[in-house]
Amino acid sequence: MKLKSYLMYLLFLLSVSSCKQDTAEPTEDEDVNLGGSTTVNVSFINTFQQPANNLTASEIDLHRDGDKAFGDIFVTAPSVVNSGLGPIFNQNSCENCHVANGKSPFPSSPSELRGLLVRLSLPGKDNNGGPLEVPGFGGQLQTKATYGKQAEASLSWKEIEEIKSYLDGEKYSLRKFEFDIYNSYIPWPSNVLTSARIAPAVIGLGLFEAISASDIIGFADPTDLDGDGISGRPNYVWNDQTQQKELGRFGWKAGQPTLLQQTAAAYNNDMGITSPYFPKENFLQQIQYDKLIDDPEIDEATLKAATFYTQSLAVPKRRNAANPDVKKGKALFSKLKCRACHRPNFTTGQHPEFPFLSLQTIYPYTDLLLHDMGDGLADNRPDFEASGNEWRTPPLWGIGLTNIVGGHSNFLHDGRARNLEEAIMWHGGEAEKSKEAFGKLPKSERESLIKFLESL
Amino acid sequence: MKLRILTSIITLIFLISACKKTEIIPGADYQQLLSDLSYNVILETYKDLFDNTQLLLESLESLKSNQNEVNLELARQAWRNARDPWEQSEGFLFGPVDQKGLDPSIDSWPVNQTDLDAVLKSSNTLSRTYIDGLDGTLKGFHTIEYLLFGENGSKKIDAFTPREFEYLTGCSESLHGATEALYFSWKQDKQNFISNVINAGKAGNNIYPSQKSALEELMTGMITITDEVANGKINDPFSQLNINLEESRFSRNSKKDFADNIRSVKNIYNGNYKNLAGKGLTEIIYSKNPNLDSKIRVQIDEAITGIENIQGTFTDAIFNAKQSVIDAQNRVRALQLTLESEALPIISNL
Questions:
Q1: By C-alpha distance, which of A161, A200, A153, A193 is closest to A177?
Q2: What would the pLDDT profile of A75-103 be if each residue is shown by its tens digit?
Q3: CATH 3.40.640.10 fits B211-348, yes or no
Q4: Under a CB-based contact definition with an 8 Å cutoff, are residues A342 and A58 in contact?
Q5: In A, which residues are within 8 Å of B99 by CB distance?
Q6: For the domain B42-185, what is the CATH code?
Q7: How many beta-carbon contacts under 8 Å exist across A and B?
């Protein structure tokens, strides 16, 4: 008995110590599970199509309904199924812009406008403090129309390149677009403000909804009291349901307060689909109005299912977090003060409807606040409190999977950057110093910082 | 002394067995498997899609030249033949098919009948170029299906208008173009997307950091299509008793669509496609759990026969042979559950 015990003990000790090198996980940073318990540990093309890892069976069912709604393709009324497209629209289904739920690439040509749209307004504000709609065109340019109707206008562009150099002499090029709106169905007003936008990735959005407003606002420094050159301002935007102004969280300028409203607005503006929340057609004010009595074209259950889909998509786990270069890049990310806007972490509060989103420690790398990003990136089109120079810090989680999921590496609000280096070098305004510091780094350190971003 | 020797021997044996799992699995090389699946199954399926849409185009041109019931039936059969490889590709719906926006041009559903009627009434030239520029709901498989088979699947040759023949050839030319783009995007001597899968885990592979990630993609694709067949394609029309939600209703091809979707799963799992045989995911599952491998093989075949055993047309069965629909649905769900809860974890733990 004694011998047996001794042997067992010895074997145990030896086996533990000799296998340790093979079996031990590499030491990882604390922030590998970017989306808390929603995180999935996969890395392939359909990564962004995975449901959150912590859904209940009934939530999985609702997610599936939402997946279907997100993929539903609409057609011209009257139709016995999916009726009501347009008559003016940008795309005929959610997933035809949010391909594989990832960020859309900049279109290859004006005849393929998938994933790109242009917001419109006139100088001034509407009664709710939002962008002033353009008579006859509304707040968004619909570049497609059902047969026999006329699209609001056509869109084309030319690319302008500017060659620049890092401090070490290596050259890089920044591309920007000069858009041309032509062939409009009625004369184009001369004073229209425009803002081109690319469809963003739709992962992890429910978690943003679960962050308490005070946590976001508490991080703001609108008058730069700490003197670090970085302010950070909340946007306050109109909530159609509550009929009051609330913290904006979604969209390139944080122009939407909730995912329900974001989704309903996208159905309405992007596809011309009316819902109980936006029961009026997006071309109501046009001479082309169809006067059909078929609204709302989707019911509340469909709208809520599609919304839930965006609330319940998983965030992927970080990759290569223990890689020395990645760690070096992460340290540089802090040193260069990138994290002053790309705030690494939040702990979500209680989500009013879905507990799986509540009390999650997440690492989205955004503060969800508005920042002046300089004249180079400015669209010069205010959106509620956001000025023409301000943009909401976009989240960085999943950014390293952009190419895998979407087969491209276009970044920023209009997709002008062709890789992460260009995206960084487009930063200005409050991020000017960080950008300049990046430009002064030796090549190896620039690459480390990029490797860190690619690990997200 | 004896004790020490004994201890050392036992220790050695124990260590070898204890460490076996961690030493062998990371070293396992699945390149041959990934290569076989990519070349024999994925690429060949896309090649058939490309070839068969060409045959569809030719049959529609014959029909336009000689408008008779025989040519009509030949064209309908050509549509079914082109449809087969498409449905058999839906188990691996990832990569260029989405990223290049090809899926909407090939398989948009429903058909935009209102606009299609208006286009047919117009005087526009119904060329491939014109149809290429239209939305997906005015082209692809289902638009051709609608025109070729008619609303009730029984359209007679004298019900066709000259403009419809024009549209059918332009539309199938456009479809063939989209399938060419899809096939060429994978083909090794064209855009060579196939190399990403074959060379998963190799330095410089920007898509798959490991072979495991490529294998997970394949397994997840299988799960996604079983889910869609059971809980979407079958369930939507069946649970709502709404024939308008049935995808290939005009051609009465729905059962074949569903079965071919599961054949897509079978092809990836077994590594076989038509007369081509190679390694498939079965090899991994069998090496870890032979019983599970048998179970999956049986469940795949049961799902296919379950679908084929749905009585009459699917349209009819959702009203008049409900039990046969439920049986088929349950079999596909059983396969989905096994893949999801038993097979995927094995791949994820490689």
A1: A161
A2: 999 999 999 999 999 999 999 999 999 99
A3: no
A4: no
A5: 99-100, 406-408
A6: 1.20.1420.20
A7: 128
